[in-house]
Structures are given as C-alpha cells and as structure tokens.
Write a structure and sequence with these properties.
The protein is mainly alpha-helical. It is built from eight helices and two strands, in the order αααβαααβαα.
Length: 144
Amino acid sequence: MSAQDIADRAGLSVTLVRRLLRIPEQDQVGNIARTTADAVLGIQIPARREPSAPGLTGAAEASRLLADLARAGWPATALALRLSVNASTVAEVREKRPRLRLDLALRIRRLHRELIGLDPVSQGIRPADAARARAAAARRAAGA
C-alpha cells in the first residue's frame, strides 16, 4: 500500500503517514499519538493475488525453460494463454528480463513439465505457428 492509500483509509494526512513510515534515527524514538496509531493499525490490508509465492526471483531458469518450449514449437501466444499473462511478458522473460515474480516462475516450471513431451500440433497449435516458433527459436539460439 502506498502512503496515500494508508492516509485515505485511515483518514489522516498523507504527510503524517509519510512521517510515520520514515525510518527513525538510531537514537531517536518517535512518539505517535494513540488515536493516530489506532487509525493506522486498524486498516485492513488488501489480500495478495497469490500469497503462496510472493517476491521476485532471477529469470534465468524461466528464460531457459521458455526457450526450450519455443524450440519444441510452442508459440509465445499459446504459452501466455496457459500462463495467464501477455505474450509480450513471455517474450521479455525468455529474452531479457532479469527478474520475475516467483509465482510466475513456478507456473513456467510447471507448464514446462506439462508441455515439453507433447507435440504442439496435437494440442491444437497450427502447424505453421509451431514451425514459426521453432524457426524463431533457432534464430535466437544462433544469435546467442
């Protein structure tokens, strides 16, 4: 939550909330009025999308797994649909993104296990799209 979100929900000024969020000096102990503390502490924290896997992780393994699926003929659009992300996100993770959300990394790992042994064409991918994905993967591998 941002300082503005906290201020809006607690009915306080954003300046006061920003002062509360500052890390105090080592020797200083900040005093907070009881009513202010009660107002801030009484705020309901919004639920996370996927609380089981918060945080960021390196994208190297996910990049390798996505490139492996592309070499097998899986187009980025099909992978993105199965991962519930945008196709450009799949391309970024595969090619240049240094970090990604841990839950996405776990979903990519799971998807790789599911799809790597399957023929994309037998799973509803058009033969031309599978061939295009394989050719693009080969070009990327040759350029690396």
